[in-house]
Amino acid sequence: MNFLTVRNVKKIFNEGSQSQSNALMGIDLSIGKEEFIVISGPSGSGKSTLLNIIGGLDTPSEGIVELEGTVITALGENDLALFRRENIGFVFQAYNLIPVLTVKENIEYVMRLMGMPQSECDARVLEVATELDINAYLNKLPDHLSGGQQQRVAVARAVASKPKLILADEPTANLDTVNGEKLMELMRRLNIEEKVTIIFSSHDPMVIEKARRSIVLRDGKIIEDTVRS
Amino acid sequence: MILFKMALRELLSHKKRSIVTLLLSAFSTALFIFANALNNGTHNQMIRSSVEVYPGYMQITNRAFEDNPNFDNLIFDAAKVTNTLQGINEIKAHAVRFEAYALYSTNEQSIGGMFTAIEPEKEGQISRLKRSLVEGEYLTATDTNAIYLGAELAKRLKIGVGDTLSFISTGADYSFAADNLVVKGLFKTKLYEFDNGSGFVNKGYFDEVMHSHNIATHIIMSPTDIKQIDAVTQKVQKALDEDLEVKNYKTILEDLILALEIDTIFGYITLGIFFIVIFFVIGIFAFLSVYARIRQIGVLRAIGTTPKQVMGMLLIEALVLGVLSVGLGGAAGAYASSHYEKYPIEITSLVDVDAQEYAKQYNMVAEATFPAEFNPPRIMMDMLIMMLLNLMTVFYPIVLVNRFTPTEAIRYV
Amino acid sequence: MFSHTEMLYFKMALLHIVRRKGRAALISIMIAISMIGLLLMEGMYEGMMVQITQNSIKTGSGTVSIQHKMFRSDNNIKYTIANPHKITALLDSQKEVQSHVTRISQRALIATAGYSQGVNVTGIDLEQESSHAKLENFIIKGNYTFDKNGRGALIGYRLAKKLKVGIGKKVIVTMQDTNNEVVSVALKITGILKTNNMAIDSNGLLMDIERLRSLNGIQGATEISILLHEQNDDTKLIASLVPKINDQNIAVYSYKELYPSLHEGEAMMQTYSRISSTFIFIVATLGIFGVVLVSVLERVREFGIMMAIGTQFRDIARLIIYESLVITMSGYIVGALLGGGLLWYFKEFGLDLSGLSDAFAIFGMDSSIHAILKLEYFTSAFISVLVATLAATVIPIRTLKQRNPIQSISEQP
Ligand SMILES: Nc1ncnc2c1ncn2[C@@H]1O[C@H](COP(=O)(O)OP(=O)(O)OP(=O)(O)O)[C@@H](O)[C@H]1O
Ligand SMILES: [Mg+2]
Question: Which residue CA neighbors atom 14 of ligand 1 most closely?
């Protein structure tokens, strides 16, 4: 049995109206545990839409998504929130962190929602922060960090609650090349050390290179799915 | 817990907005409490003075007297009634009256007016008649041919203390009654019509000339506890003969009480307009603060915060602001209420001309002081209402923000 | 008209509003609701005041009243206008005067079989009164007549209720004549009046003036009551009358002097609405300010880009002002239409409160309140909205300038 299955997922926005757009036109995917996948493709090809549907942020017009036996496309709003909390970590392009919480509080946010005791949270934050080299600013507010630092905190938050799957939609788009590469290396390391499955999207060839498996979308369809050795 | 922390930090990170919201809501609370306190205090005072000047809190009459106020419908055994009243603990004091009409004449003038017999001592305990003395002396139980006259009436009759006037009236047995009276004292209540048209004599003397031994038109009572007045009224009614009727001020002063209620309603209408605007503004601020965070809320939702938790967080913010502002406003309102209960607001410009004129026109008691009422349960109630209003202001933003899906929220520009 | 760029800014303003319609709607609704509230409050309260004043003026002493100068403080029949015809002839030639009536008023005693009380007897001429204030319209029972023999009387409904008399019943009226002799007359009740002028309703009896003259021997009159075409011409008329009458003993009063409480009540109401509306608009300004500030701050970069491609800051300020004005003025228009519509309705058809009519009568009001509708309400509200809007944009525009929009383009989003 696969870790993650995407079967015949279609997404049509504003169906029937003038501005109808067929963002996804039948996506089939099988993803194994601990894979490190990049989704690329031109702007508007459906990368974000696909990631959102996999993460349960959006519902497909047709088709199903199944993660370790749970058909997430069948869950209701509330169950979805709980499901995401337990199983999925997100990293977004920007506006990622909660401005009123400190770096440490941002990282532990999901664990706190899950009701983890403070001592465990503290230990885990320390562990992740050391791994990502953000110890120095744990007590700062996100505003005071650079873009690259913020993205690392976002990754820390995504990984801290030990999700099964991390989804990152263009995590490097707002970063310069050096910082972008650094972030990718970090995620790659986490993928191995934390044994977490990671799917991310990107335009950047330098970034795409870093992935083992590369999926290319165009006009809502998969046109390429290659695994590098 | 983390949600609570976030709510607090959110408020702190927008200090100006939070303070403006807080002050607006605190101000409304204080205003609401104080307006209510002033309204109640002033109305209570009006009722109290109207009641205490003369009508009394409770009265007994012959059941037929209201429809036919003639001498066939009197209390013909006043002693029996007063004996009964003596045995009722809830009645603090009572006094017997006989109200008649007379034509008062001096050499120059004849003026019709009330000619009423009272028990001077007992009357002094029950109405403000004794306290309203402005010149001369009040009556005693041994007085004969002495009248305690309204100051305005005396002015019209052009007489003063020590002067003589005569009266013509009809006795309780419909006989002709007339005698000379010496003015013993003058009184001035705040009830113009009353000062302008009534005179009082000792009942012992009155009974001789008017043939009204043991007969009364009214027996006035005051209860030990005014709050229990309806129950006491019923109790007294049960203890009396069928042909007698007990009424309390709520019926006697029905018109006044209704008028005061209308006044209250008008007050609420004005306050209502204020509050709509104030809470609209508070609501607008809440709305803006939520909308500024839509993307952030999208992220929160994406990483597993449920819509209920988002709602909880926003409610906590409103609750914190609400508790602070209602507490602050409540304290201010309560302080003002208790202060102005002890030291009523005085509008001195009203004292002379206007209050007098107003009182003349509407036959109400003229007051130039406006006391508030310090009533803690009532204040708590007002605070609760304001708290609910505060919470209501975030409902619209909550509903709106929860309409967004997480992705829409994150994409929101 | 507007220039081309002006139109462009206007269009941009509209587009921005549409993009953020939620908050724009909140502001518009807030202004509309407060407008409706204020309009209703002003219009209805003023309607009430006018009604109270009119009720007293019409059936009472008129807009201008001529009396013996002592009569007001001492209602003694010694103090009469000896030669009323001379004065009425003068009045006929004054163009401000709409109508006038000559009356004799006297305090008297009214008695039924078993009850008597004080009463204000006024001798009137039915025809004169009819063309003066349409007195016949106030008859609620019986007819507008004194019968052929002149032995009829009209009395106030409250007095009738108290005396338990109906149409056709006899009452005995006792008074003093000019020789200080007590005289009595039996009158038959021919009509019952409800004027909402308390002096008549609860204390008044109207009888034929000639019959009263033959009874008390007064040849002149105690009062000439005058109604004007324009109520505000009172001072003008008084100024021109006094020298023409040229009699030290005759005083000419305006209703403002005769009913100071009414006049001051009117002034107090006006101050009250003015304070209320000022307060409401200050609070509303805060709300507008919050919205403008947020919508300016979230567009700093956008404005920066506009400036980078050559827009002057002045024009950006103008854009912001237009945007705010469109929002608030649409609220104003909706509020003016709805509030004005409601007021118009209440002006035409009145607000019926007949269930409470007795209580309203205490205040001198009818059971149906007719609103007043003045252009002034709308212009002053317009100015208030305009000022509030402009005031609300001052700080946001200044803040925007400080943020230096052009520089903000290069900053992180
Ligand atoms: N909420 C939405 N409403 C309507 N159309 C949408 C919505 N979201 C996406 N689309 C449309 O769906 C298509 C795919 O969009 P998507 O954001 O998935 O592309 P993408 O590959 O992520 O592009 P980019 O590289 O620019 O981020 C586009 O044509 C877009 O216009
Ligand atoms: Mg995308």
Answer: A46
